[in-house]
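Q: I have 228 residues here and want to know how they pack in 3D. Can you give me a structure?
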Amino acid sequence: MKWFRQGRGTRDEAAGVVPLSGVVKSAGAPRPAPRTLSAGGPVLQRIDGDGDQVAGITTGAGPVILDITHQGAGHFVVDALDASLRSESQLVYTDGPFTCRALINADDRHVRALRVPGDGPWAIEATGVSSALVLDGVARRPASDVLRYEGGPGIATFRYEGDPRSEDGGYFLVDTFERDGNGFLDELANHVGPWRGEAPLTGPCLVYARSDGPWSVSVRPMEGSGSS
C-alpha cells in the first residue's frame, strides 16, 4: 500500500519518510472488510458506488468523519478534491476489502468532492466529529481511524503492526487536531513499516491516524511518564 499526501511534503521530508513502494496484491480469496465502529450520530451524507466515481461533498466546509468501506477484490482509492477538483490528499490507497475512517476539513483545506477509482462496491458515510470513538486509556484499531481524547496532558504510546501485504510494511501517520476538528495541532508519528514510539498529548483533541494496517494507542497521565 501507499499513501500520497499532497501539500505535506515539507513535514514528510523533515520526518525522513522514504518513497513508498507499490501495492502488493494478496493471494487467494479476498478477506471480508472489517466492521467500522463509531460513537454513533446522524449520517450527514451517504455515497454509494460500484467502480469509478466522482461525488461532491454536500456537508459544507465544517470538519466531518468519513466511514469508508470497500467490498471489492481489486484496487480502491479515495482522493480528496478541492474546489477546482484538484487532488489535495489521498485518503485511501489499497487493494481488496477494506474499512477505515478519515477526517476531512479539519485544517485550511476544504474538500469539495471525492474521486473514487474502485473495483467493486463501496460506500462512504459522512458523520460529525462527535462520532469519533473516545480514547479512554487504550484503543486498538484495524486501519485509519479518528479518536477523541478528552483527558489532560499525557504520554501516548503507539504501536503500528505494519501491513504484511505491502513490500515496505505499510504507512503510519498520526496527526492531532482541535477537539471540534477546527485546526491542526501536531504531528505525532510519520513512519513506514512496523513501529513503536511515544508522543505527547497536550490535552483534549482529535487523534487522526492514517494507517495501512492494525495499530494501537495507550495513554498514561503525564505524572506516570516513567517506564512501563
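Q: Anything worth noting?
A: Residues 140 and 164 are 18 Å apart (CA to CA). The first helix runs from residue 9 to 15.
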